[in-house]
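hey can u check if this looks right to u? its 720 residues, i copy pasted from the old doc so theres a chance i mangled smth
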Amino acid sequence: MESTSSSSSSSPFDKVSSALGRYIPRGAAAAAAGSADPQGDSAARQRVHANSPPGRQEQILGVVNLDRELRITGSNLDAPVFAGVVAVTGRPFVALLPPWDVPTVTRRLRQVLETGEPHVARVQRLRRSDGSELVVSMSILAAAAPQEGLTVTVIAMAKRLHLYAAETAIGTSLDIGETAQSLAESLLAWGDVAAIDLDFAVWTGEVVTEQPQRRIRLRRAALVPDRAWPDGYMTPGDDLPSDASRLLSQAIRRDDAAQAIVIPDRAAIERVLGSARLVRALVPSDRAAGVAYIPLVLDGAPPVVLGVAEIWRRADRPFHDSELLDLQELVARTSHHVDLARQHQREHTQVLALQRRLLPRSGGDTIETASVYQPATPDSAGVGGDWVNSFPLPDGRTALVVGDVVGHGLGAAATMGQLSMEARALLSAGLAPDEVLEHLDETVTLLDDAESGLAAGYSALGSTCCIAVYDPVSHQVALSSAGHLPPVLVPPDGPGGPVDIRPHPGLGAEFALREPFEVHAFAAPPGSLLALYTDGLVEDPALPIDEGIGMLADAVSTVHPWDGLPQAARRLVSALAPARRRDDVTLLLARMIGYRKEDTATWRLPARIDAAARARALVSVLLGQWGTRDDTRDTVLLVVSELVANAVRFATGPITLRLIRTGDGLLCEVGDTGNGRPRLGRGGVLDDGGRGLHVVHGLTTRWGVRWTDTGKVVWASVAR
């Protein structure tokens, strides 16, 4: 024979305090307790009650104790507000819940049992013996030692308290789906089923405007509770039928003003919807008899409707005017949270599009590249300013760039785009990696200026960047870093590890901290694998950053020479990146290929008047060995002659001549010790200066200058 548990001698306050004690540090608990004994504590509470004004002593806190099998072992639900909620000792706790809430609550209870982590302030309904329901705020705590099991606290929620708690909970996420789900869960206090349908523009982050009714398109964003729904019913992610969207928009926008409407019974619902197909799509079950449609309105001139909230009830629970006022107040209070999520989605989409646009497309003939970019999870601060790029330089080398701009959102994205494009332009112009970083450092400093900055309140100071330039002839990499994590190099004949580079402050450091950027050169034989990345890939709060870099090095070392780089890059990110990313994750893999020895030739010539003739003779023999066509041979000989003659005339010291056979042409390079920059002027036909460059300009597809530590290299590309 079942019997209700008798009231415990301990008050609900004492039971909750005992359960909460395990979550409070010992020192804090002792400080809170002081030297007062239990009798003194009880007396103090009695004094508080005695001094409380009339009508303020209503108890709204109740407690139910459970064993490890989730059966009730005791309870204190004696307050009048819990009348009809009968907690029977020995019965499962879920007997107090509506049937459709049983799976979710059971999962939460077992989770607290297994982990010991409390589940706090869940809006829940309890069944009364007369069939009605009570809305409570339910928290699940592990029972205080020496007891085992759980302590479940329930607070009977007055409507005003529920409104406040719901608004607080709904504003905790910037994800549209989570925001809509929180709103639906809060609305469940007034009904049996709650659904949120949003304008499609809200989902895409577009600007929502007052549109003609026939163009409204609604998508289901949230639906509670969790249970199996009949076939054809709209669930989250489904687009409502066009006639249903039009019908709802017309209903809530009567006379061009957004209004709440109530359809009180099943017959009226079927009559309004007009077809069995719409009834299956919009009515959750046969028991649903009444529905309230509450528009989500964004204040403005004119007001803008973001969507509609639906609250369904059974026939024995009609809506009262006071309840409709509460529903309208809650939806009105939380509509701006939905719009904030929309704005966040819009910004997220824009920044992500920019990130995708900056990703490298191909690596070229002398290097193979693959990149992976994963943005931060939607509920984080937003997409960050991480970027990665690789591109062939006009002189046959390849640039690899990775950067991490401070902050998130549009300000970081704008800075990222500017720095990325500036780095590419300067590298293509022939500047060395350290010189490029000097310019980027100055740019970040200028962008931080209050008047010329990109966005008010945003600062890019401390952003990092790493630039590597690969020479496919010498198989050398020249690398400079501004505060960035070191790349990982895996040579073809040994294990991988981080490149040993000297730490440097980030871009835009204070003047007293600024140091010259250094160029670190190292060998990268064909088959070497270089990994550039941002900190989101290797940072773990539980591990030192060096361990994260070491794990990346070990993972890159497992990439087989025959593995495809795109698949390998995705595999590495999947293995190393955290599931919930608070920061962007970026990885660039580069496999060095280089030129074969038989495709290059290098000569050192003295800076004498006969150097041009000597260069023509050497190149002519090589072109014959390569089987070059006569017209291409004549063009190359003329270009080499002009470049060598120009170097002899304006430079001192030895001259270096290099010829490279590329996939689509020939690349001629002439290096000297001069520091003057060759320029293509507007000289006349009889002017002696600059005629050689005019000849080179007319015979080649591209030409340019690259600066070195000892001088410069003038290069020119000739098509075959």
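The longest helix spans residues 321-358.
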